[in-house]
Amino acid sequence: MTTTAILNPPTPHPQQAMTQRILVVEDEVALASGIRDALTHAGFEVEVAHDGTAAFETFQKSHFDLIVLDLMLPGKSGLEILKELRGLRHEVRVVVLTALSDESDVVRGFEMGADDYMAKPFSPRELVARVHAQFRRKEIDAAPPPMLSLPGGISVDLARLEVHRDGKVVPLTPREGDILEYLVRHRERVVTREDLLLDVWHYKNPNVETRTVDIHIVGLRRKVEADAARPALIQTVRGKGYRWYA
After folding, report:
1. DSSP per residue over 135-164, as a string?
2. Mean pLDDT calculated for residue range 135-162
C-alpha cells in the first residue's frame, strides 16, 4: 500500500478539551504518524495501533471517544473490528479510512456502524474537521434535557445538580449527576457496570471487583425514584446492568 503523507497540520481548535481520546488504527507507519500528529496538534490525546488485533486489545484496555479506522489491516480487518465493537454495544464514534475504490466496502462499513468515511489520500484539515463534527453530533444527538420531569411530581435540574421533590431541594453529587446523565443519554439500551466504570469513572480496566457502581445507583434511586424500593426509572436488568425507563 502506498504511503500517504500528511503535511501542514491544522491549527488547534480553541475549545478542544484534552480529555477526548482517539485511537488511530492504521498499518502504514508514516501515515499513522501523520494522523497522530495532526490530531495531537488539534488538541486530542491520541494512541496508535498498526494492526487489527492490537487495536482491539488496546480499545478494550482503555477509554476512547473516537476511532480513526483503516479498513485494510493485518490481523483483524477494519470491518471485523467494527462488527465486534457494535456487537459489544460500544457506541464509540468511528471514522473509516480506506483506499478501496469499491463503494460496496464503504456501504458495508456504514451498515456495521461506521459514523463517517474518508478516502485516501485526504487532507489533515478535513480529517480534524470531521472528527470535531462527530463530537458535536454526539453531543447534540444524546444530550438530555436540562430539566427532567419524573413521575411523582419529581424534577431534576441537571445543570444545578438538584432534585426537587415534596417541596424540598435534594442535592445530587457530581458523580450521581454524571451517572444520571449517562443513563439518560443511553436510554435506548442496557448500560453495563463496565460501561459506567469506563465512561463515568474512567477506569482503564473495568474488570475489577468493586461495588461502587451498585452503591451509587442505590443512592441515586433514593433521590429520583418515587419509590426507591420499587424502582421504575433506573431498572436492573439481571445479569447485564441498568436501563433508564422514562
Report:
1. HHHHHHHHPPPSEEEEGGGEEEETTTTEEE
2. 79
